[in-house]
Amino acid sequence: MTTPSRHPVAFEFFLEISVIDQLASTEMERVLPEGVSMASFGLLNHLVARGGTESPARLARALQVSKGAVTALLKRLEARGLVHLSQDPRDGRAKIIALTPEGRRRRDEAVAALDPLLETFLAALPAPDLAAALPLLRRVRLELHRRRQGG
Predict the structure, then answer these.
(1) Nearest to 21 by CA among 67, 66, 52, 64
(2) CA 79, CA 11: separation in Å to the nearest integer?
(3) DSSP-derived pairing of the beta strands 53-54 and 91-99
(4) Distance of alpha carbon 74 from alpha carbon 80, whole angstroms
(5) pLDDT at 7 exceeding the cut of 70
(6) pTM value surpassing 0.70
(7) DSSP letters along 17-39, please?
(8) What is the dihedral sign for C-alpha 7, 9, 11, 14?
(9) Of 14, 60, 77, 92, whose CB neighbour count within 10 A is largest?
(10) Exposure pattern of 16-48 as b/e (b: 16+ CB <10 Å)?
(11) Distance in angstroms (rounded) separating the CA atoms of residues 63 and 20
């Protein structure tokens, strides 16, 4: 591929990541349980990783979406009993989102639904190959995160 970029390797690297993200999201969305979108799956996963609670503002930053988009998604998830919104005891104007047991169950169900897809993927790309790529991918993620934080 030829590109007018002065940094063709970096350009192609991030282009590949972008295409992989789109293709992986499409594949995953096809097998997620009904009612679990990639957006809700990402939010539920984030809550699990953060110990079950988070503020809407931090969720928006972490998921790289607007606060309005997070608020709309949270309302849908709360209506389904997957999260619970409450007042932040330290700041009465702010909210705290907590993952409910049903939310955890639905997230775990979604992870299990991905297993057959992951098994077929591992048949083409063995786990040791994927594991070898993880350190570089983590470094890229951490650098992007650092840049987003302004540091």
Answers:
(1) 64
(2) 42
(3) antiparallel
(4) 10
(5) yes
(6) yes
(7) HHHHHHHHHHHHHHHSPTT--HH
(8) negative
(9) 77
(10) eeeeeeeeeeeebeeebeeebeebbbbbbebbe
(11) 18
Assigned token pair, 110: 């979604």
Instruction: Specify the length of the chain in residues.
Output: 151
The amino acid at residue 77 is: L
Cα maximum dimension of the chain: 55
User: pLDDT tens digit string along 42-55?
Assistant: 999 999 998 878 88
Whether residue 43 contacts residue 61, with contact meaning beta carbons closer than 8 Å, is answered with: no
Backbone φ and ψ of 38, nearest 5°: -60, -35
| Sheet hosting strand 83-88, strand order edge to edge | 53-54, 91-99, 83-88
Give the number of other CB atoms < 10 A from CB of residue 56: 19
